[in-house]
Amino acid sequence: MKVITILGSPKKNGKTAQALDLLEGNLIAKGHEVERIPVTDYQINGCIGCFSCFRKKEEPGCIQKDDAMFVFERMMQSDVIVYASPIYSFDFTAQMKPLIDRHLCLTIDFGQPLQTSLIANKRVALLLTCGGPADVADLTQESFRRSMKLLHGSVIGNYVIALGSSPDFNSRAEGITDKLTGAICI
Ligand SMILES: Cc1cc2nc3c(=O)[nH]c(=O)nc-3n(C[C@H](O)[C@H](O)[C@H](O)COP(=O)(O)O)c2cc1C
User: Fold this and answer.
1) Ligand 1 surroundings by CB, under 6 angstroms
2) CA-nearest residue, atom 4 of ligand 1
């Protein structure tokens, strides 16, 4: 199985990256292929709202010539996508949000009865870290659920590792990423 993990933190070695290290280690130990995409390694501009992408169905069709198409290609070639982000101001980070917005170009027949997407039925999961208690991540989980409903993604689950500065972060991260590994590998 091929798993793409998308790191939405500006920190390459922060808490979210640490959680991904654990998850990816588990998956690799089970023989799966894993590729991490740190969004800060790529130039992903904000959506400009031109809707040109609606003209194309077989490919993302965005007119912007940046790295988003590369990331979408990797996602489309995967079996599972894990979106990992810290919570910033009760939301995805500013680095992650442009990629989420640009998912619009993956939709097919947007607004029509048979609307689908280029990642329809793809298994997807959300992995969030935050400084506060888990409920600070409620809005982000809901926006992810709605975005994935629009895209017809198959949501494996949402996983939140709260209290990022607490000394037991790593042991809790291990428990949560073990659960996510189990959900990915069923
Ligand atoms: C600008 C900024 C905004 C944040 N907003 C929140 C927040 O709204 N709620 C919360 O619980 N933690 C918040 N945090 C804390 C981070 O979510 C937390 O430290 C996270 O684990 C950092 O992950 P990272 O090390 O991968 O970047 C914020 C941190 C920053 C830098």
Assistant:
1) 9, 11, 14-17, 86-90, 129-132, 136, 164
2) 88
